[in-house]
Amino acid sequence: MSTIVLLLITGLGLGALYFLVASGLSLIYGLMGVLNFAHGSFLTIGAFIGWEVARRLSDGSWWALVAAMLTGAVVGALVAAATEFFLIRRLYNRHIEQVLVTVGLALASVALFEGIWGTDPTYVTSPSWLGQTTEILGARIPNNRFMLILVAVLVLVAIVLFLKFTRYGLIVRAGVENRLMVTALGIDVRRAFTLVFAIGGAAAGLGGVLASIYYGYVSAHIGGSLLIFAFIVTVIGGLGSLAGAAIASVLVAVLQQFANFYLGGTGDLAVVLALAAVLLLRPRGLMGAKA
Fold first, then answer.
1. 3-class DSSP state for residue 252?
2. For residue 123, which of 116, 246, 286, 287 sits 20 to 30 Å off, Cα-Cα?
3. Contact of 203 with 223, CB cutoff 8 Å
4. pLDDT tens, residue by residue, 188-212
């Protein structure tokens, strides 16, 4: 029983990390139709800059962690907004060019990160409580999993509230439905779309800092490795569905944990097989809109 509890809760923690990355992907594609393969770069630079700030403040303290999270979110948002403004804005409805540009940016950014911070992982120090465990029904759960779950829930609620109850959220949703009509009313939809990119980048940058806590290090490739699972989550949940991304994040992570434990470390294979099954049986994903 304790093993099942451990796998479930640690799966929820891993799913929370996947959601922080996948939420930006799903938001950007669902509202703007952009497949952003450079999304992992937002995560990586947010993690690196966040921990550079934390290291200079008071490494290992809660204040340093909060500063790292805020810095990671701000840096991710700024880089994402700049990417949309200078590169993506001219490529809406040109999907092949979007893929080429964002893939190229992702590859170039990895080389840049390795040139600045090196190819070896940079190990991070977090508050001692996060390295401890809490016993639940006989299972010793790492405390950092609880933090991941809490932050992911807060991000999900914040994005939903933004889209439903703010002026810019209304503009974004209206611009997706009929961009020409909204523009004819004198509203600059481009600003709203840049804001969407920034929100997705902020979630990724925040996820980068938390990923470094989860793994204990940050490296130039951490964003790329998480981006793979984020895309799987986005496809399984349904392209453009934020709720689908949240549900799929949990399902994928829990499946991965159980398969790794009971099936000899075949978690990644189980996730790929689940993706294949969804594509064959329900191509639009669990909560994707019908074509």
1. helix
2. 246
3. no
4. 777 888 998 999 999 999 999 999 9
CA distances from 180 to 28, 87, 129 (A): 19, 21, 52
Q: Is 180 exposed, middle or buried (0-12, 13-18, 19+ CB in 10 A)?
A: exposed
Q: Give the Cα separation of 286 and 239 in Å (integer).
A: 9
Q: Would you call 229 helix, strand, or coil by DSSP?
A: helix
Rounded CA gap, 46 and 211, in Å? 11
- Number of alpha carbons in the 13 Å side-chain half-sphere of residue 198: 15
CA 218 – CA 209 distance, rounded (Å): 8
H-helix or E-strand containing 139? strand 139-142
| 95-137 confidence digits (pLDDT tens) | 899 999 999 999 999 999 999 999 999 999 889 999 999 999 8
> Where in 71-130 does DSSP place strands (E)?
122-123
Count of CB atoms within 10 A of residue 178's CB? 11
Q: What are phi and psi of 136, to 5 degrees?
A: -130, 115
Is 264 contained in some domain? Answer: no
- SS3 call for 133: strand
- Whether residue 165 is contained in a domain is answered as yes
Q: What total of structural domains would you count in the chain? A: 1
CA-closest candidate to residue 148, choices 8, 7, 20, 4: 20
CB-based contact 13:146 (threshold 8 Å): yes
Give ∠ CA 111-116-77 in degrees, rounded to 5: 80
Q: Which of 268, 60, 49, 91 is nearest to 197 (CA)?
A: 91
Domain hosting residue 96, numbered range:
2-220
3 state SS for 45-64: HHHHHHHHHHHHHHCCCHHH
Tell me, yes or no, whether 107 lies in a domain: yes
Q: Is residue 15 one of the residues assigned to a domain?
A: yes
Q: Which residues contact 151 (CB under 8 A, 6 or more apart)?
A: 16, 20, 69, 206, 210
